[in-house]
């Protein structure tokens, strides 16, 4: 399963402009990559989209998870199903639905429409991770804080939120990786000049895979792998602490 990734990494250090033959080791493709203005612009857009969508989703996803876990209200079951629907429906469906919605209200496409669309699925992932953490917390801690004179806001910010923080961070890291790698939703909702890294890669490989794209793919795989590893480490650590 990992053999294609190893082959891609191997040829990113090849002097040859073609992957068919090996002509020697070089770091030139990585140097060219970091001097490419289009790549740097796409990277900037991807970071803006990823950070913005994760920041918005972290707040909304945490509040959604707490509301679903701690409160009873009419239509709760239906709302829970709708909130986590982006986890199971295809990205293409989210992309088309978002584009139709934006067109219906004549909203011009831009980098912020990408952010809006990605908040939809980032929210669901962060909410799911936070919800799993909430199931292992003792609700009596908040009740004790209220009995000792804390307001509901103080009980949330000083008692509940610190316990949820590892899950929030893990969910944000997971959502950031998904946002960074997203192509379908971004391509449907991007405006002119709002290319993200996956969109830039796709536009270039249509004329053939070049070594600089191999180098970029290797970097993306490493970054995604590191972030996913950190998120999983945080999640495993919090589960271990909860079981002790």
From TrEMBL:
GO terms for biological process: transmembrane transport. Its main location: membrane. PROSITE patterns: ABC_TM1. It is found in: Cell membrane. Keywords: Cell membrane, Membrane, Transmembrane, Transmembrane helix, Transport. Pfam families: BPD_transp_1. One of its GO terms (cellular component) is plasma membrane. The keyword Transit peptide does not apply. Gene3D superfamilies: MetI-like (1.10.3720.10). It is a multi-pass membrane protein. InterPro entries: Bact_Polyamine_Transport, MetI-like, MetI-like_sf. The chain crosses the membrane at residues 47-69, 81-105, 111-134, 155-178, 213-231. PANTHER family: PUTRESCINE TRANSPORT SYSTEM PERMEASE PROTEIN POTI. Belongs to the binding-protein-dependent transport system permease family. CysTW subfamily. This is ABC transporter permease. It comes from Cyanomargarita calcarea GSE-NOS-MK-12-04C.
């Amino acid at each position: 399963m990992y053999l294609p990734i190893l082959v891609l990494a191997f040829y990113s250090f090849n002097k040859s402009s073609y992957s068919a033959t090996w002509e020697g080791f070089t770091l030139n493709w990585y140097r060219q990559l970091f001097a490419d203005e289009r790549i740097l612009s796409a990277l900037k857009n991807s970071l803006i989209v990823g950070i913005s969508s994760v920041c918005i989703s972290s707040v909304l996803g945490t509040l959604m998870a707490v509301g679903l876990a701690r409160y009873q209200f009419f239509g709760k079951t239906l709302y829970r199903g709708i909130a986590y629907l982006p986890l199971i429906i295809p990205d293409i469906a989210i992309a088309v639905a978002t584009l139709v919605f934006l067109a219906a209200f004549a909203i011009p496409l831009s980098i912020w429409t990408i952010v809006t669309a990605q908040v939809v699925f980032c929210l669901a992932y962060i909410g799911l991770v936070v919800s799993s953490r909430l199931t292992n917390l003792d609700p009596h801690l908040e009740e004790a804080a209220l009995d000792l004179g804390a307001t509901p806001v103080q009980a949330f910010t000083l008692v509940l939120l610190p316990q949820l923080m590892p899950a929030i961070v893990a969910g944000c890291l997971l959502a950031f990786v998904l946002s960074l790698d997203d192509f379908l939703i971004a391509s449907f909702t991007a405006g002119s000049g709002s290319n993200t890294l996956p969109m830039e890669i796709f536009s270039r490989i249509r004329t053939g895979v070049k070594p600089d794209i191999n180098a970029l793919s290797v970097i993306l795989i490493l970054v995604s792998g590191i972030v996913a590893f950190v998120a999983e480490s945080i999640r495993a650590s919090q589960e271990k602490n909860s079981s002790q």
